[in-house]
Automatic annotation (TrEMBL):
Pfam families: PPO1_DWL, PPO1_KFDV, Tyrosinase. Belongs to the tyrosinase family. Residues 1-28 form the signal peptide. InterPro entries: Di-copper_centre_dom_sf, Polyphenol_oxidase_C, Polyphenol_oxidase_cen, Tyrosinase/Hemocyanin, Tyrosinase_Cu-bd. It comes from Iris pallida (Sweet iris). GO terms for molecular function: catechol oxidase activity; metal ion binding. Residues 93-116 are annotated as: Disordered. SUPFAM superfamilies: Di-copper centre-containing domain. The keyword Metal-binding applies. Gene3D superfamilies: Di-copper center containing domain from catechol oxidase (1.10.1280.10). This is Polyphenol oxidase, chloroplastic.
């Protein structure tokens, strides 16, 4: 067993001890109930492990591991025409680092997420099959976590399943350890890409691209199926953290105790504090926290922009079109990956830890049970986005075989390694789960301009003449370091030169060539025609177009580590009555104390079909 695996288990042990210490506070009756529960968990665990070993043994007997059987992994989908899909090479698992230091004073942090017995040594039993719809297995309903605090029966099941997971041997594919390490494997570059045409050693990663939503849908799905299997309940469904509703914004109470608790969280963000979806890391001063009602309003306004107005096209919501090999590399997160995804990860994590562990860094995030509720909600928001933007059933966001045939590997509830393809992720209904419907208050949270548009126009003209007045340069070419706000005038390309199809063209602001010093987190906000002071600027203003958020450990190991951020601005320009202007003013407002480590190459406008 790798030393890092031992190290990872220490927190689980601490939690267990913590739980045991709390036990005597209950009544004698509860105490015995609890003891019996633990005993029954332990015995079911023993049966399970035995079963797994036996199964593994028999597969090995039937198909002795040989070099010929391992080639089975790498056949490519035929008929894709325009090249090979994106997939990991399971034979290439290697220790990786979370923070890659540029300078000697920053500590490199090696993480080894590889299983002790590599996945590449196991046969792929099959391609993923959807569960067959039958009356015996009704649709599993994922419910909002904040409404489950009184459902004792459900909480007992969920806690029991997690407890069994935590007690499995770390090497078992269903163990809590291995379940958490999946995130590390696929997000810190522990695998290289399996791509015959690509140069060797190009890391495989699923963040900041169009793979983000499909990958995490499968991850949460298999985790849920395994939890159900461990307690023999085929109807088990994970809850979701409904932070897009005011009542659901604090960390749900059910994640504050028992097996669902995690010690490594920011103490000042525990309930009843509402989540800050516009969270800026490094805001250590408690007095900075806005009142709850204001934070709630900010969250809803931000969600409107990131879910609706700024994300009218698939690429804007889901991320850039990543292709295999160094040449196909891209790094551009969708609006929802910047926030709520990244921002909520950072908000939950413990800021006193090196990388805001657990939730605030990719390699450790899934050690916190709250991870799965966070990602269940993102999965739900993907489904909501599809509904809002007219993608029904199996209609894909990108009709592109290279995306549709990209694949990953997961252990299913039977501990078989299965291959899953992006095309299977599209139609959520086929997985046999659904989300309990809740109100979407952010749909009505379309912000208002900070000042009347006519006044804003006069103010901008006056500023244009006054170069001392913080208008830094009237060019859209950087590079700039974001030590302070960068304001630039960006010319809009004439729309008439673009051939319009059936779909409406979206005007897109592209912040190009964003680079962040390795091992640093970073955040900046993007505003259009901002006339108020930076300190008064917030997502509650119509001028807010989006944000860029990077976690510390999310260092791109592709193409010089540069990224783009794209946000849709058509509706903003309409509301600001700037739709006819030749140019717009764009402000990149650094947030938090690390912006001097962030550089941007330029800003431009493109039209997206
Ligand atoms: C996977 O990695 C192994 C070991 O580096 C290599 O021999 C094999 O060619 C790779 N396969 C693909 C399809 O990239
Ligand atoms: C950024 O600012 C911090 C604090 O002011 C300073 O310690 C650090 O050296 C600066 N980094 C760069 C790259 O200028």
């Amino acid at each position: 067993m790798a030393t890092s695996s031992v190290w990872c288990f220490v927190p689980f042990f601490v939690v267990l001890v913590f739980v045991l210490i709390l036990l005597p506070q209950g009544s004698q009756h509860q105490h015995h109930g609890r003891r019996n529960q633990i005993l029954s968990q332990l015995s079911s665990k023993a049966i399970l492990v035995e079963g797994w070993l036996r199964d593994k043994q028999s597969t090995t007997d039937a198909e002795p591991a040989s070099s010929s059987s391992s080639t089975e992994y790498y056949y490519y989908m035929s008929g894709s025409g325009n090249g090979i899909p994106f997939s990991p090479n399971l034979s290439t698992c290697h220790p990786t680092s979370s923070q890659i230091p540029d300078s000697p004073h920053k500590k490199s942090h090696e993480v080894n997420c590889c299983p002790a017995s590599p996945d590449s040594g196991e046969p792929i039993v099959r391609d993923f099959q959807f569960p067959s719809p039958s009356s015996a297995s009704p649709v599993r309903i994922r419910r909002p976590a904040h409404r489950l605090a009184l459902d004792r029966e459900y909480l007992a099941k969920y806690n029991k399943a997690v407890a069994i997971m935590k007690r499995l041997p770390p090497d078992h594919p269903h163990s809590w350890h291995r379940q958490a390490q999946i995130h590390c494997l696929y997000c810190n570059g522990a695998y290289y890409q399996a791509a015959a045409a690509a140069a060797a050693d190009v890391p495989f990663m699923v963040h900041e691209s169009w793979l983000f939503f499909p990958f995490h849908r499968f991850y949460v799905y298999f985790h849920e199926r395994i939890l159900g299997k461990l307690i023999g309940d085929d109807t088990f469904a994970l809850p979701y953290w409904n932070y897009d509703s005011p009542d659901g914004m604090p960390i749900p109470d059910i994640y504050m105790k028992g097996e669902l608790h995690d010690m490594k969280r920011a103490t000042r963000h525990l309930p009843p504090a509402p989540v800050a979806i516009d969270y800026t890391p490094d805001k250590l001063d408690l007095s900075d926290e806005p009142p709850a009602a204001e934070q709630t309003a900010t969250n809803l306004a931000l969600l409107y922009q990131h879910m609706v107005s700024g994300a009218s096209k698939p690429e804007l919501f889901m991320g850039c079109k990543l292709r295999p090999g160094e040449d196909g590399a891209c790094s551009g997160m969708g609006t929802a990956e910047a926030a709520p995804h990244n921002s909520v990860h950072l908000w939950v994590g413990d800021a006193s830890m090196l990388e805001y562990e657990d939730m605030g860094t990719l390699y450790a995030a899934a050690r916190d049970p709250l991870f799965f509720a966070h990602h269940a909600n993102l999965d739900r928001l993907w489904a909501v986005w599809r509904r809002l933007h007219g993608y029904r059933g199996s209609r894909p966001e990108f009709d592109d075989p290279q995306w549709l045939d990209s694949h990953f590997y997961f252990h299913d509830e039977n501990a078989d390694l299965v291959r899953v393809r992006v095309r299977d992720a599209i139609d959520m209904d086929r997985f046999g789960y659904a989300y309990e419907e809740v109100d979407l208050p952010w749909l009505d949270a379309r912000p208002k301009p900070s000042v009347a548009p006519e006044l804003a126009r006069d103010l901008l003209r006056a500023k244009e003449k006054d170069y001392d007045n913080m208008l830094r340069m009237a060019t859209n070419k950087g590079p700039w370091t974001l030590e302070e706000t960068v304001r630039v005038q960006v010319t809009r390309p004439p729309k008439s030169t673009i051939k319009a199809g059936q779909e409406e063209l979206e005007e897109v602001l592209v912040v190009e060539g964003i680079s962040v010093e390795k091992g640093m987190h970073a955040k900046f906000d993007i505003y259009v025609n901002l006339v108020v002071d930076d300190t008064a600027a917030s997502p509650k203003l119509r001028e807010y177009a989006g944000c860029f958020v990077k976690m510390k450990g999310a260092d791109v190991a592709m193409k010089g580590g540069s990224r783009n951020m794209k946000v849709g601005i058509s509706e903003i320009l309409e509301d600001l009555q700037a739709g006819e202007d030749e140019s717009i003013w764009v402000s990149l407002v650094p947030r938090g104390g690390t912006a001097n480590a962030t550089r941007v190459d330029g800003i431009r406008i493109e039209y997206m079909q």
